[in-house]
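Write out this protein's structure.
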Amino acid sequence: MTLRVVVIVGPTAVGKTRLGVEVAHALGSEILSADSRQVYRGLDLGTGKDLGEYSAVDPPVPCHLIDIADPWEVYTLFQYQQACYEVLRRLSKHPAFGSGSVPLLLVGGSGLYVEAVVRDFRISDVAEDPDLRRHLEGVPTAELVERLETADGELAARTDLASRRRIIRALEIATAARRGPVETSAGPGIEIDWKVFGLDVDREAVRQRVRHRLEARLDDGLIDEVRHLLASGLSHRRLDQLGLEYREIGAHLAGRKDRQRMVEDLAVAIGRFAKRQSTWFRGMERRGVPTTWIAPGNPQKILEDVALWTAAG
């Protein structure tokens, strides 16, 4: 039989987790997280884990691929894809999931992670190269893109060229491949049928949601979360690598920004990030991943489509 997986994607702050939980609870299913930062322990408020959502229903919805790495480790796309496939293989042995009568859910906003799993990318297992990263620090982003396209056009085509971090990571892989053989990822080993739903929200609504959620998480103790990470030994350099909230709040705690400026800069940066996420998912559709676009908070549409999907056999 073929394992069925419903995928729910969309930009940050639009309610993916809550929607996924509502759908999974109605189906008696389980969720796999597709978030590049929720894999890290201790990064809770800043990554929007919303762990309470999973236990807000009875029975709670099981969730996988959250809190599986320490924040001072670098958890790679290769590791995520292989871990995701391992969970899918394990759950495919469950009678309901393995028979295709109940689909699993993959929910998240990390577009590259979603696409790597859904399109079964062949990914290289390459460690970080600190010397190369230091060498590339001062190189303009446009030049980095040119270098990557020259080194490996195929790798460049599947890299998020709007993300300097992703470009540098791709250059690490291309550089390692020139030095010698590089291990590449294995496929899932089972048949999987994917059904993708994208949350369609206008830009202004996303900006408002971003600002509201940011203020709520600051009230809930986001600055204390970052302060605790620093106290545990995490460096400011590593904070910068962990994304917007951790970089900006780290700068605030280091005295480089006052609170008001930090909040304003962070709201703008998250809004821009949300726009890049939406662009990625639209591009994913153009790259051959059929996507049904729906309004946030609409579990009924997903459940209706899933009922037809599973009934079709």
